[in-house]
Amino acid sequence: MENRKELRHWLDNLQLSHPLVIAGPCSAETEDQVMKIAHQLKDTDVSYYRAGIWKPRTRPGMFEGVGSLGLKWLQRVKAETGLKTATEVANRNHVELALEHDIDMLWIGARSTVSPFIVQDIADALRGTDKIVLVKNPVNPDLPLWLGAIERLASANIEKLGVIHRGFSTYEKTKYRNNPEWQIAIELQTKFPDLPLINDPSHITGKRDMIFDVSQTALDLNFDGLMIETHSDPDNAWSDAAQQVTPETLVQIMKDLRIRKEFDAEAEFLTSLNNLRAQIDVIDNQLIDLLGKRMKVADGIGKLKKEKNVAVLQSKRWNEILGKMVLEGEEKGLSEEFTLKLFKAIHQESINHQEKIING
């Protein structure tokens, strides 16, 4: 993988003046719906028209796609609009049908990436293909599992490879549908800079009004493109209605996004600087989120102390924590002075929370 610089060739050969844009409905619903959206997108920044033909759903009884009939609609899209086509495949039969209908780009979904057996079956069916194959991150935050899927495809002599970052499932509810866990995508990008990296803000956010901000973060982190679900009537979509945008909104998003290009040494410096700053922004947001969670735990401790009439400050426990954190901070390259200041501030905020509950 480290020496597979040909991985970027398919992207470079597109000669785009903007990040790669893959857009279209979550699901192909009817032929009229597919064609209407395609014609609305044909003169935009969109290069690949995506539509789910087979939809892996969490529970039975939900709309699971129109099946192979939709592939004929995608053929018509390419013939009438010139847009290249893309769809998800989850087994050998899907692959064979997609290749038969000359679909240009195939992606393996998050639920499939978790299974090496499924990925291997798809890799065998695609062996030697010249089609572009993208792999979404697995549902769980497991970078080796994600890379393992890419390695299986590379071993099948599939050269036009890339990955899609669509966030990771979590039992705990957050503002995202799937937590971005940006550090995982950043680590993948650091290890394999020649592997094209596409962001899927639709599945990360689950809400159309958050798509712009996540897209901007992705571009600041040097992602190569975006996959955004687009529907002419998103509120009445047959699947994932809340996360789809209209074609008009997609065009506006692409106009408003700040896209940084590398033209000279100074621009390259600024791009690298902005990338590092974007990484710091991601980590800062994680720190705030973790501190918020810590204070909720402190609230729980405050309630227990109130019930048992226990003093807020427990000096022995506090000194044990502080000593431990100083040692762990030194291992991470943090000075004792910094660690003491940081945890004293956190401890004081925790005391404030508990006192409000006890005196409340």
UniProtKB/TrEMBL annotation:
GO terms for biological process: chorismate metabolic process. Coiled coil: none annotated. Its EC number is 5.4.99.5. Residues 267-358 form the Chorismate mutase domain. InterPro entries: Aldolase_TIM, Chorismate_II_sf, Class-I_DAHP_synthase, CM_dom_sf, CM_II_prokaryot, DAHP1/KDSA. One of its GO terms (molecular function) is transferase activity. The keyword Methyltransferase does not apply. The keyword Transferase applies. Keywords: Transferase. SMART domains: CM_2. This is chorismate mutase. The lineage of its organism: Bacteria, Pseudomonadati, Bacteroidota, Flavobacteriia, Flavobacteriales.
